[in-house]
Amino acid sequence: MDRELKYLIIGAGGTGGAIGSHLVRAGKDVTFIARGKHLYTMVKQGLKVVKPSGDFIVTDFQASDMEHYSGDADVIFVCVKGYALDEIIPFLQKIAKRDTVVIPVLNIYGTGGEIQKKLSDSLVLDGCIYVAAEIKEPGVIFMNGDILRVIFGVRNKEDYRSVLNKIENDLNESGIKGILSDNIKRDTMVKFSYISAQNACGTYYNVAAGEIQKPGEIRDCFASLVHEIEILGEAMNIKFEEDLVERNLRLIDSLSSNMTTSMQRDIRDGNKSEIKGLVYSVVNMAEHYGVDLPVFKKITNELKKRE
Cα 33 from chain centroid? Predict the structure, then answer.
């Protein structure tokens, strides 16, 4: 494909806002799907990104809510919370065409396969993102660090299309580390091993990253949770190329001590959260694959009681 790709970003929060703003800054054709005051401010004033390496504002983009969108897209990044998927599936079914590539970058493992069942004519990949970002106020995305890495790929090799290499190039041209994975099941499980463990541990103890960084019970719990994801992955015939416990301890140690996850903040504020997909689902998968994950089971039981 020689022409420039048209990108649609569904969800302009921390994830979608970070991806889309960098694509726009690099001159890519981007439309955001957003809502409320955030959408209004983006349309009137542009989208501002605040990050350690320097703030910037982008204005050369389109933005709409789902009800008023009438465009077309070559690539759709799905950047919503897991509990919002049911809401956007009818929209995806309406706008996605045979040649459309859909890339979910949710935290919940296996999302792409679930969406694919409902979008038989389009290609739905699996994907994940490494970024610490959130909406600071309407029209403003705050990135707590400069890391911005998007990994995506097909679950079955026969689904490969050359356009995926162009997407990878577009991301890298935009200051996003784009990686077209040759083993997306492994790479998304690696990310899940971190995000699931941090959410489970941080929510169970009601702590920020700083408490997980200190030697002791909480850090040991985090390490045990990561190890249980390793056990689950092996039962799913996923071969890891590195020690996930060591990897994720390094990652948690790189965070600001006051950092909490969006799931923790949602629970704190009494909002809907991704706790089912990020924590409870691990126990369900363990039962399906016949493995025992005692730490996840203990935390799941306790968190359900709190609900």
Answer: 16
Q: How confident is the model at residue 229 (pLDDT cuts 50, 70, 90)?
A: very high
* 3 Rama sector, left if φ>0, alpha if ψ -120 to 50, beta otherwise: beta
What pLDDT is attached to residue 1? Answer: 56
- Report the distance separating Cα 104 and Cα 113, nearest Å: 10
Report whether 204 contacts 221 (CB < 8 A).
yes
Closest CA to 91 of 6, 102, 28: 102
Give this prediction's pTM: 0.93
